[in-house]
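Aim 2, interim progress: modelling of the guanosine-5'-triphosphate-bound target.
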Amino acid sequence: MIELETPRERAVLVGAPSKRLPAETAAEHLEELARLTDTAGAEIVGSLVQRLDTPHPRSYLGEGKIEELRELLDEANATLVVFDEELSPAQGKNLEDLLGRRVLDRAELILDIFATRARTSEAKTQVELAQLQYLLPRLTRMWAHLSRVRGGIGMRGPGETQLETDRQMINRKISRLKADLERVARRRATQRSGRNEAFRAALVGYTNAGKSSILRGMSGADVFVEDRLFATLDAATRAVDLGDGYECLLSDTVGFIRKLPHHLVASFRATLEESRDADLLLHVIDLSHPGWEEQRGVVEAVLADLELDEQPTILVFNKVDRLTHEEEEIWRRRVAVEESHPAVFVSTLEPGGIEPLRTLLRDTIRSANPRMRITLPAAEGGILAEIYRDGEVLRREEENGTVIVHARLPAATVGRLRRRPQVQVSED
Ligand SMILES: Nc1nc2c(ncn2[C@@H]2O[C@H](COP(=O)(O)OP(=O)(O)OP(=O)(O)O)[C@@H](O)[C@H]2O)c(=O)[nH]1
Ligand SMILES: [Mg+2]
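Predicted structure of the complex, ligand included:
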């Protein structure tokens, strides 16, 4: 849809945060915008920051600043302007008219990155849907842009009829994509119900926090990790051995970011369903990032938006290798006092650095599995094997052809055993 083509676009970044935002935070936001712009493939040739009380309704920036920006764009030979703030369709169009350059806001930039990074057909469909929904109220501007590019006599902007035809076409496409995604969601739901025995945990968190690294470290599987924003766009699930016969399924998900476009969150719902279905969320936080508390807030807000905020959650503070021991101690003490969620401190780079998470997961599952006493005929080898497969056998006695097993078992297995007439089940 919005393609950055070679040669690389030359981008000027614009941050216009409220005067109330602390300067440090404002700088971090612009730094993040620079990373996003770089990820999208553009070269950054300048930036401009203006503290605003209230944005100008028509052009976001005031007249004087627009003039300054125009000069900066000329000097830097820029081809693109990237705003950190959300622009209304009208503001975007007016700015393009005033500046004579293409103008993107953060949401458009994120959509663009998602579009170039989506690999599976599901991710591609999700991104396309979000892009079309974003485009719809901005059609007039897109057409104005196209006609400017094509220019020339006989290539004037489209009439209202053309716009209307386009709108109808896009609406039809949107319905089709939604139907496709619903089909995928149903198929996923069926797949999930087929594997409902295992304990499931889902990794969530800010982009670049280290979710995929944790999945890789925990499962030993080959998972894509990169020092880039939005390295992962597709949910991947791997089996993880937790020791003592415990196992869980761990899912990786798309990272969150400040001002994640709303359409994108909505169309990624299917992927994020993995998290809704999880028994436990692992919220991964990059403790070495100066803005981690704000990032955590962003993630919690998106989770609330997706109605996932009531899920049982473990906070996974990652990248502790980048902290001094003193810093780590301070956070450990604070977290122990202030947090209501269980928390764990890990590093995916240090040997054994994620073992605390493995242990905590094992303990969590263990305490979710009650201790049961199961009595069955010794000849029932199949049932015995089931108990060993699903649970943790603590003790086993055998006498006169009867076996008594003391074991921690998941509720599902207990339910199944209770339905067998030859088996007696009681709490231990
Ligand atoms: N120093 C340090 N770096 C880490 C650690 N864990 C991950 N990283 C690095 O952080 C970067 C991002 O890691 P990923 O695992 O791709 O992060 P992610 O959360 O999956 O990111 P997205 O998929 O983009 O949302 C990579 O460069 C990792 O090598 C850690 O414990 N310590
Ligand atoms: Mg990832």
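The two ends are 62 Å apart (CA to CA). Residues 129 and 173 are 8 Å apart (CA to CA).
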